[in-house]
Amino acid sequence: MAWATAAGLTRAPVAASLAVAVAAVVVLVWGWRRPLLAFPAAVLVVVAATCGWRLTAVESSPVTLLAERGATVRAEVHVREDARVFSGAGGPGTVVPVTVRVVESRGRTWRVRVRATAFVEGSERFVTGTRLLVRAGLEPSDGSDEAAVLRVHDWRRAGAGPWWWRWSEVVRDGVRDGVDHRGDQAAALVPALVAGDESGLSDRTREEFATTGLTHLLAVSGANLTIVLGIVLLGLRAVGASRRTVLLAGVLTVVAFVVVARPEPSVQRAAVMGSVALAGLLVGSAGAGLRALAWSVVALVVLDPWLATRPGFVLSVSATAGIIAFAPPLARRLHWLPLPVATAVAVPIAAHLACLPVVTSLSGEISMVAVFANVLVAPAVAPATVAGLAAGLVDLVAPALAPVPGTVAWAAASVIVRVARLGASLPGAAIAWPWPWWTLIPVTPLIGCGVWWLLRRPALAVGMTLGLLVAIVRTPTPGWPPRDVVVVACDVGQGDGFVVPTAPGEAIVIDVGQEPGPIHRCLTELEIDRISLLLFTHGDADHVDGWRGAVRGREVDVLADGPSGGPSVPAARRIRLLAGQRVKVGGVDLEVLWPRADTGRVAPEARNDASVVVRATVRGHRILFTGDLGEEAQRGLGRLNADLSADVLKVAHHGSADRWEGLLERVAPSVALIGVGADNPHGHPTSAVLDDLARQRVAVWRTDTSGTIAVLDRDGHLVVSAR
């Protein structure tokens, strides 16, 4: 109840908080002798009062008022979380969560204490606690918990933070120094496991961890603290330490953990959830653990009501509840396995089921390898975390010896990275959930019941597990991928996704469909592990939203789009394409034929007609990709280009009736490809388009009836293969 109330009130006016608080007080006074009424009412009073107070403080702050006027100010800010560098169209930038302490404008000075987010040009390193003096332009914030956004014009350091922040930075540097001699992604993972420092991780590694359900390892989680806290407490118990000593050591460990990992929201969650999970396991009572978890949720949403709507908080609470409530009975159900193995299997199953609806709401996919991946990496997580922390501590007194535990941490982290890379590369690593995410709320308990029934039958459980593994791995299909490919139309449902190979294992990808799963499977089956050029013809969802599947486990050299833009995909370089440009990628020549060179930014409703039209020449064959151009834009394309001839035509807009009949005559293709979903609500491809193609004697291939389609070169002639 406290959770839902906080989630609702942080998005509502202050008056709503006041109304809820008054109503809760009335209930509390009326039912103070009835604990079932009085206790929830008291909690609601505290939560509503906290939300109202925080919202009022932000709304009435001088910083908020100055931001509404777009004022330029001088301010003193304190960095509240480590800065993060991002890549923008104009170069790198740095985003810094800050607390504004002093603000000055037009001769007036205010002492305040409100949150804000600052944007600084260039790649800068600001650590928690640093004091900065800035001159910045203020803009209103989109979040109700922040007073403004600061666009920093110039800045200087006013001082470092307190000694404990400086000490923690030395430890974090020591962790990095202990593994720097390795210099790969496993070395970059160790600081993430120990202190949540994922700055060295590549975008490819992040995508691989997301696909395999290992993302929780990249941010500080309750598991990190549980490992460190468990070793400290169990070690003290082993030497006969008193209960008071054990308790004191536990508190100090939690405090040190928060300081080293930074008191960010994820760390606050980790400190509470890790302590709760360990307490639940030590007590051995699911009821006690769940009660502690409930109190923790109340405490956290009172301290920071905005946590209630953050995905990380929801996932953290869900996973912790699942582990406490379901892991022990699942482990007992697996009595036919050795206890350590049964526990290692039960914990990820419980966490995965508890988080399934939430994860699907965020990604649109269900990871099929998450449980397997978590079971495989579980033995490596503790050694990597503990040895990495040891490297940081050893570096304080004997820097020359830090690489010794650092190498142990690197070796364990290497196992985790390899599992993530292998799991993400499998064709069936994840499947798209075609219905709204909330439909999984009733489905998940049914899945849980099925798992519960299955685990009691060892032979059937092992058989089903092996069958699932076969489905995930998907043994190779003879003759696929074919040789001498000119272009492939991937079956991505109602959308476009095309692949033009440029070298062994490399390709140009033009559009990616709406869901990440289909394009990932298509590229995996074609054995593409590097995207030389990723081109978004325009920004509609059925052409761009599946980009995470395209880049999953793959590097992108160049990202290209047109005036309608597209998502900010991790890539080495980004370019904008307009008519008249030519691009050469490997042995493939690309001519940009549309839109006009003077086309500016376009409105969402005009995206189709601003589609990037390119003609690719592959093995001497021309392929014309026409995006979603409508009739008027197709006529404009014809006026702008005297020669539109091509051997293969990607039919515009999935075969929409909004077409110019003269385009087909000008192109004169022998093969037409249509990316379209079965039984789509738009009636694509229309009978008019199919009739036009039939009159011109063009061979028509559709992804809704033929699946993935490959156009091949055979001794200078085009042939088509489908699967």
Automatic annotation (TrEMBL):
It is a multi-pass membrane protein. The keyword tRNA-binding does not apply. Its main location: membrane. Residues 494-679 form the Metallo-beta-lactamase domain. The chain crosses the membrane at residues 12-30, 37-55, 214-234, 246-263, 275-301, 313-331, 337-359, 371-394, 435-455. One of its GO terms (cellular component) is plasma membrane. SMART domains: Lactamase_B (SM00849). It holds the Pfam family Lactamase_B. Keywords: Cell membrane, Membrane, Transmembrane, Transmembrane helix. It is found in: Cell membrane. This is Competence protein ComEC. It comes from Aeromicrobium choanae.
